[in-house]
Amino acid sequence: MSTSHQSRFFGFTQSLLIFLTAAAILIPIYWMIAAGFKSYADVFQARWLFIPTLDNFRTIMEPPYEIHKKLLNSLLVALATIAIAIPIATMSAYSFSRFRLRGEKSLFMAIIATQFVPSVILVLPFFILFRDIGLLDTKLALILVNLSFVTPYAIWMIKGFIDAIPLDTEEAAMIDGSTRLEVIKNIVIPMAAPGLITASIFCFIISWNEFLLALIVTSKDALTLPVGLAMFSAEEGDLWQLISATGVLIMLPMFVLGLVIQKHFIQGSTSGAVR
pLDDT digits over 159-189, tens only? Predict the structure, then answer.
């Protein structure tokens, strides 16, 4: 086979693999979005052509589902988690990056190692703890659960960005009379902004999608959207049109968020700890 034929063959194979990969990712998403706008009959007859309806979205907003309350719970929990986790993670990451402490590497690895503990192992301890202190079925319990997962991850990510900031810049500012806090506020945070944004996005996604612990520690008032998906079962079986409509609501904020800050996300993903 000549060189030109080999190039065309590998080019065709590469294009085919990209097409198949894209199809494997996009077809389930299309099916889910389309099913959210289909009637019950259209979903089970797998029709590609159908008359779109908003009845499913109206149904999930009404009793007994009231998905809008779960949407608000998910939003409040995710935003509160970010508001608490990012400042704590930033200060912790700065300390690990700039100060030499005894056992610093072991402590940092211990924090990162918490990410490898399966959440299913933590279900019972969290349940017993929140039951004993009266926090079961509260948004505060979900925020504390999410903080335990996202804060170590945010520390790891943000530390990578702070490590890349030249130390000379901070030393020059301190020689000019700036305090350590002023250096962090005026130099470190602006220069590490892509990392903070990237960490915030990942923290939001983790908090928004958390299911297992939310299922265990909530029962009624603090239910979140992912847990709400488990409500759509009836005598006739799973109500896929309602599950899909809720899935659209779960996916929509992250889709909008990704479009708005994709520039910062790409920059942060390629220049910091994620690479």
Answer: 988 998 888 888 888 888 888 899 999 999 9
Angstrom distance (rounded) from CA 111 to CA 76: 26
pLDDT tens for 59-107 read 999 988 899 999 999 999 999 999 999 999 999 999 999 988 788 888 8
Beta carbons within 8 Å of 136's beta carbon, 6+ residues apart: 127, 130, 217, 218, 219
Both tokens assigned to 89: 């993670």
Cα gap 185→176, rounded to integer Å:
15
> pTM for the full model?
0.83
Nearest-angstrom CA–CA distance, 39 and 1: 54
Q: Cβ distance 82 to 74 under 8 Å?
A: no
Structure tokens belonging to residue 244: 């899909």
**CA atoms of 60 and 142, how far apart (whole Å):** 23
